[in-house]
Every structure is written in C-alpha cells, then in structure tokens.
Predict the structure of Ribosomal RNA small subunit methyltransferase D.
Amino acid sequence: MTQRRNNNHSKTARPSQLRIIGGQWRGRKLSFTPAEGLRPTSDRVRETLFNWLAADIRGARCLDLFSGSGALGLEALSRGAAHCDFVDNNPSNLRQISSHLNSLQCSPRASCHSLSADAFLEQAKSGWDIVFIDPPFGLRLATGVCHSLQKNGLLLEYAQVYLETGMQEELPQVPTNWLLHRDKRAGEVRYQLYHCPLA
C-alpha cells in the first residue's frame, strides 16, 4: 500500500468504540481510531478471561504487552488492579490509551511505554502478577516475550500469563515450568491462561 493511501485511510478512518464490560467503569464506552493490525480483544473473550481472573485481579500489578487499544489493561483497572503498564510501539495507540486513563481519572495507576515489547522487557525492573500478551497475529512474537519474562525474572510469585493467538498460527513455545490452566477458542482466536510458578 502506498504512503498516499495510508494517509487517506488515516483521514477517513472512523472512530471505533471499546466497551468496558465489568467493574468500576462497567458499560463505559471509549472511542479509539482504528490502526493497521489493531484488533481489540472481543467482549466475549474478555468476559471469559476476567471470570478466570476474578479471584486474583484486585490489587494485582498488570502488564499489557502489545496493548493496542488498551482493552485488557483498562478492563483490569476497572476491576480493581492496583497498576497496569501499557506497552506498544505505536505512539498513536498510547496517546489514545493515555487519553482514556485521564478521562477515567486513573492515570496514577498506570504507565504508558512507547517501546517494542522486546525492548521494554530487556530494560524492565518491575515484576507483575498478571501479564496480557496479545500480539499481532502471524508475526510469531509471543514465544520470545514469554521467555524474556521468565529469563529476566519479571514474574512475581503465583503470576499468571494470558496468551491470545490466531487459530491458524502455530502455538507459541512457553517456558517449561508454565502450567496451562485454561485453553479456549472463539472464532479465529485461541486464548490461554498459564500459571507461572517461580523456577
């Protein structure tokens, strides 16, 4: 696609809406501008995921890698997560997430990082209780970040990792000590939740 077409697309793209489905901001609709590869986790999948995490989300430190629209991290904050780090290499996505955080008056509970997931994990110092990994489909990005989380000691005790991939993709290879806890499919998406005991 030519640069001219990209510019035309950006000018004509209509805002889409993201709906928070549970917690403090339940039913709140947030507008975002679609971008290439931006694919917010569906309401159906988010509802199932946060049912799985219901006993653990309150007070958790969360990391939303490949955050895109921020759907997963914003949902986590709505449901009582203590803090969420949003990581995306598209500054436009992060500006929209920052705007949503301001409108929800929860900026102190979040940080936005304009970096690739790999670069962020190489310099990260914090640890997380829950990590959301929802990379663009077809680029085989998940395996590397899963192993970086483990190798760099970035998972707290009893941490959980959510992994979302396309049905047509080969499943990522996760660290051998991760325990598959949940595994479901919805349309063209496969999504899994791992328990990650400290090695």
Remarks:
- The chain has a mean pLDDT of 89.
- The beta strands are 16-19, 29-32, 61-65, 83-88, 110-114, 128-133, 155-166, 179-186, 189-196.
- The CA atoms of residues 45 and 152 lie 29 Å apart.
- The longest strand covers residues 155-166.
